[in-house]
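Illustration 12: Proteasome subunit beta.
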Amino acid sequence: MALQDVCKWQAPNTQGPSPHLPQPGAWAVPPGCDPQTFLQIHGPRLAHGTTTLAFLFRHGVIAAADTRSSCGNYVECPTSRKIIPVHQHLLGTTSGTSADCAVWYRVLRRELRLWALREGQLPSVAGAAKLLSTMMSCYRGLDLCVATALCGWDRSGPALFYVYSDGTRLQGNIFSVGSGSPYAYGVLDRGYRYDMTPQEAYALARCAVTHATHRDAYSGGSVDLFHVRESGWEYVSRNDACVLYSELQKLPEPDKEEEEASRDHPEPASRHRDSRMPAETEIL
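Figure caption equivalent — predicted structure in token form:
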């Protein structure tokens, strides 16, 4: 006789997400209160910010972030790590509530490991992004704050996805998330090229995060830099943001170099002839 008939046992659904997460309606709130309304009225209102970025180029994916974790006007930790590895070929930048980001990356790491045990291989970057957005979308409206850029390399090559806690999922070449992202986008839009060398990509990422930390009060500390290659992710460096900014100030600006070059080598003046004057005749 089958075990199902004796014990009334049924195999769990192994195709969906793991059932260990609490249900959206299982929050500990006073009886008769809607969780979403209760959190909107009585939930904490703490300002937090960061600067994270990621971009795709010929040699893989670059991810960079600052290291300052803030809680309102208080700097909670100046050396936190906002780029979290998931497995050898996948990592992600984190922006939002630090606890939410840490928990959901732990959940994602577990779900991808279970996927690999069931299917015999890890899912693609697109599959990981879809899984994360699907799991977090169940908690829409419950004050969950996770904004991440998933950077990875799978069988189809390098890939970059933006995922937000309301279920938003976007694919692109450049993403910057956090309160310092407008300043980072200004540097990226000016210097980004797909055919950059790795050293040029490193310099662009450091420059973008450094300028954002200088203008954004909630960003600061150091600049972490990661590079996702075909062989896996690589931790490139951690540099102090203040030191980087002072070094960038000493470098000549590209516009000034072009102006000096044009003054040193002026273009020859072209000869203009008034159309009303008769053309010069050749004397034989």
